Amino acid sequence: MSLTRRMFVFGGAAIGGGLALGVIGLGTHLAMHDRLGVQREGNSKDTLLNLWLRINKDNTVTLLSPHTELGQGAGTGLTQIVADELDLNWQQIKLELAPATSEFSNGGVFEGFVGEMIGKPPAWAEHIASNAFNRLADLLNMQMTGGSASIRFTGWQVMREAAAAARQMLINAAIDKYGASINTTTDAGFVVDGDSRWSYGELVEHAATLDVPDNYTLRAKGERKFIGKAMPRHDLPDKIFLETQYSIDRHVEGMRYAAIAHSGVFGANVATINNLAEITSMRGVLGVENMGLSVAVIANNPWRAEQAVKALKITAVSHQNSDLSSASIETFQRESLQGKLSDAHSVGDIASVLGGSGETVEAEFWVPYLAHATMEPMNASAWLEGDKLHVAAGVQNPLYARVHAAKIANMDVEDVVFHAHSMGGGFGRRVGFSMSEDNPLMWIDEVVTLVKKYQFPIKLTWSREADTRQDVYRPAVLAKFSAQLDEHAKPRYWQSASYGSEGGAPASMPPYNVDNIKVQFANHPSPIPIGFWRSVENSQHAFFNESFIDILAEKAQADPIKYRLALLDKNDGHAKCLKEVAQLCNWQYGVSADGKAMGVAVQKSFGTMVATVAEVSLQNNQARVHRVWIVTDSGVVVNPDSAIAQVEGGVLFGLTAALYGRCDIENGGVKQSNFHDYPIIKMAEAPIVEVKLLESANEPGGFGEVGVPTIAPAVANALAILGKRPMRLPINA
Amino acid sequence: MISINLNGREQLFDVEDDMPLLWLIREEAGLRGTKFGCGIAQCGACTVHIDNQAVRSCMYPAVAAHGKQVNTVETLGSKEAPHALQAAWIKHQVPQCGYCQSGMMMAAAALLKSTPNPSSDDIDTAMTNICRCGTYSRVKAAILDVAKEMSL
Hints:
In chain A, 30% of the residues lie in helices and 24% in strands. Chain A has 733 residues and is an alpha+beta fold.
């Protein structure tokens, strides 16, 4: 066993022959436990395998990844990292999804994600660690894909070490068994010593008898053949040739279908089904079940189940949320900002400069609740086989979902088999836990409950309407800003207050050099279920901060890029990307002859700096975005084509939110229901997006979410130049 | 009984007249390449060809397909013999999550049949499918690539 920077690598003979290597995130977990004050129970629970790397006798290599596929394509990047460190040829390596068992939990990734974002565990992590069910076990049940973390943490910090250790073991095997010289090296799947060549497959059995070396070297940049190249994604042929099975496509012999009606009021149970006889007499209907928060109809075809659900007449019990509306929530948030606030960040002493001379600038922003709207609505299948419960679903945290299903079924975790499917979109919806105390896996609860009762296999599919109205939403946030400009039109102070803390990640600091800064938040919960929404708090706070700095530039009658640069150090990362993006877009400040204007925004998130310029016009008082230029600065870029695809996608995800996205609350539920009233950008409205990736030798930054935060403020700032400054989203309301 | 020529084979289905074709295809015929996305013909994930026209099957009553030729995405091509669009989808690395891409490729195939050499505007007009991952620029590049090849 070999101790590396943050983890143990260990190896041994694989079942069926070959060499297997694992990584134990011991140190990382102990650190997380200490932070959370978790009591440890003995050594056995402290050891967590982050992955298995299997080198087979046929000279193939299998990478078992803990990360599920939701469109991000991180699996390909992980194999690129391993192929370089282990010195493989591209055909040798195969990617497999690790099973949802505790051996493959990746709390270390989870910890990296948390630590990187905010430095201390947020409230929802505390909640996970301290809730009624086993504190330690719950933390060990993380097998998370999220936080733009697969490449950054699993790949760069964990898999690279295992692969490098494996390569050294294979070299050592050649030296030990065949007397190879100390000059022995590797060449694309072979160990080479002068004219002698052994395939890795020939050496694995002997390598498996050796200790994992204490010393091994990571490959230098010049030795990399795959990292930094646009390798084609492993998962795309199966997706294009229909061999990818989403959970909605799962079929089990004898399967029946469930559709769902929720009570319509968040948190309220269904009191009565008023037309039960009518429903049960509909063609194909096999059962109607009041499950509390929802009613299920089971039928022999999903459409028949859904037809019956549409015909249901239900009454919800009276509930404290019954009168809730967007207006009442906004009013409550505004009142809360007048009350006691918590400090998020503070620089200098704002009290000492309040009341000075100079123009005071104030602003109030509002962003609404947003649904995720994954293309594949929430669905899951479940069936019983012997004494085992099988659950098939697409989730970003299969192990957590499995443990959750076992709890709902009142069964031992060992008796639940979880089948993790590729997801038709995730965007944070399928992480498994939320920032409020709500349950994002409600659809899994529902199918498990139904299968326990009916005993036959059931596939439960939420309609688009159910999916839109029973999400864990991006939180609605009201934010108030103020600043005072000095004689050089620079802010003497910067003060902001916003509602909520996004589960421990409250408002961010502006990146600008201001002597006196106070960032505060009203630390109250959301009455509506809230969860992780692609880029999390960055999507709201980049809009606030980057709109406000632009408002200050406007007051100063300054070019918004020059104004920002004057408030940033020369070597600051924000400044670097701003200068690059200005060059990329051929920055023009002001309205062009054809009535267009450019707007800019910059934000660092998930380890990646992003500067964005949007070119916008107003047509019939509606914003039209023509072109977008983006510069990212993110250290080593493992797969530039995948990185660009993620940034392009992030821009459109953020633009949909900026232009159209709103979930209005009416009578305690969400008013919007489907794509006609919750529209998504289509091809004709999609701007041309040009992405420039800056690289360095630094550790890789994330890409899955970083395209989202800057687009809304960039578009808003362009509109301001056209004379229409949006203070509330969506813009095209 | 509804009689449909589904992917080149005459088949009889005992379903309600108003059952959408999507659910006949997925559950009665067991062909699951065609996807459910919205149920109100907004997203296009369920696009099939009826007598060579792109149709959103989630709102198309099964009875309306009686006597017609319905082709699903399963007829497009295979790894061994890919359709030109599928090859272009690989070349341009189009999909992300992939869920909408059956519908995208079926809409693109119908477009190229009716308009073999589409302009960028033609593509914008014809391709109104929703992709939540935001793959539109690659979808368009792939279609233009295939059109160019076809015109050679």
